[in-house]
Amino acid sequence: MTDRPRGRAHGGRGGAEPRPRIRLREIHVLEQVMAGRTQHQIASMLGITQPAVSKIVRRIEERLLADVAYKAERQRARQ
Asked: Are 7 and 31 in contact (CB under 8 A)?
C-alpha cells in the first residue's frame, strides 16, 4: 500500500505534478477543443495520451457545469 493520501489526486506522474502545470494543460486542451481538434490530435500535440485528454476535458466540463449551477442558485436566491 502507498503512503499517498486518498482522495483527489494532483494529476500526472504519480500525483506529484504541480497544480499550475495542470491548469495550464487544461487551458491548452480547451483551446484545442474549441479549435475543433480531436482528442487524438490534441494528445499528439501536447505529448500526452488520448485518455489523459479525455480526463482533462471531463474535468473542465465538470468545473464549468458546477460554476453554472452555482450561479443559477445564487440568481434564484436573489429573486
From this structure: no
